[in-house]
């Protein structure tokens, strides 16, 4: 499970770029998020063997991933997990990404990390089925004067063109353009889109098997995309 931390625990004085949570369990959300998002507590086992594999083999390869045994999963993790597995019975591995505080890795690095994580999962010896879920968003602006403009026109031209690229597997230019500065120009929260770029690194140019873009006056644009196992294992591109 890949998501950014929203300055709830990683802050200006301690901001890892990419961090794996490898404690025995992942719990959340933060107390203030229970009321803000109407969330229940989530407490789930962590798949420790695969987490250690990602860390150890990642260091041997191209990514020096950070790790921590002390963390809380915030709404970026808890919202999708609660919808996908309300039973809280499927082990997870939280992978925190820095999409909040510069310096933020460019889209190229998120894309490379997605590719690396896929390769590491494929070299894991255990007979384990793995689903990768990334949690991000399209244009977004929080606590700034532009919040009103998003309420009046939630779907921007950037959202429309980006959604077309995502849906049709046209990603090379999208990855190259996805720098912090470029994304920030569309709203101070838009760098959260970098977690989409991570997903594109995992799937390559394969088109999604299912997709839906939702938005409204009280809901910022959110794009949902799914690639099934057959597509990922060499299906239609």
UniProtKB/TrEMBL annotation:
Signal peptide: none annotated. Gene3D superfamilies: LigB-like. It comes from the Bacteria. Coiled coil: none annotated. InterPro entries: Xdiol_dOase_suB. Transmembrane segments: none annotated. Residues 8-212 form the Extradiol ring-cleavage dioxygenase class III enzyme subunit B domain. One of its GO terms (molecular function) is ferrous iron binding. This is Extradiol ring-cleavage dioxygenase class III enzyme subunit B domain-containing protein.
